[in-house]
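Aim 2 progress update. The chain analyzed this quarter is reproduced below.
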Amino acid sequence: DDDDDIPQLSSHTLAALQEFYLEQQQREGMKTSQGFNQYSIGSIEEDWQLSQFWYSDETASCLANEAVVAAGKGGRIACVSAPSVYQKLKEQDGKDFSVCILEYDRRFSVYGEEFIFYDYNHPLNLPENLLPHSFDIVIADPPYLSEECLKKTAETIKYLTKGKILLCTGAIMEEQAAKHLGVKICKFIPKHSRNLANEFRCYVNYASGLD
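Predicted structure tokens:
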């Protein structure tokens, strides 16, 4: 019988697979149900393989509001590897500011022209229309706690910003953050939707509302 060579799933594997698909359908159902906001945190799920860890709703709101105030009326905000802050900013759609997201994860291309593919390994490999010093504030969250990653991301930040920088990274990066970006640690303690092993902090180079 030709069917003998067709691999068969065990009943346990089949049940697990069906459960997975059911959960996926439920998530999609929630996304398409009335009131779903495509910009809400979690609408694109974390990918730990890309070192992604979303901020808590409260932290993302706080950082987004800080960026709006710092940018000023009609200001331009760049989110470098900080998608959950970008999503919070988009929830405020209609306010007098503009924002773009520089991100390695191409899933964020669903946000259209505001998405710019970004690889920190090539910090100045940016579109020609992304002019130097064209953003009132840059908020950045380098994906890795290493000086190499911070140093390369810093090149991008300094290229983009008119001056103001809001950096989010580990507390252990304080010395390197000061060295490469001239930023100082804030009193505000950012939180993530999942607890991280490393203590996380915010750093700025201007008088912010985070102290």
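The chain has a mean pLDDT of 83. Residues 11-32 form the longest helix (22 residues). These observations will guide the mutagenesis experiments scheduled for the next reporting period.
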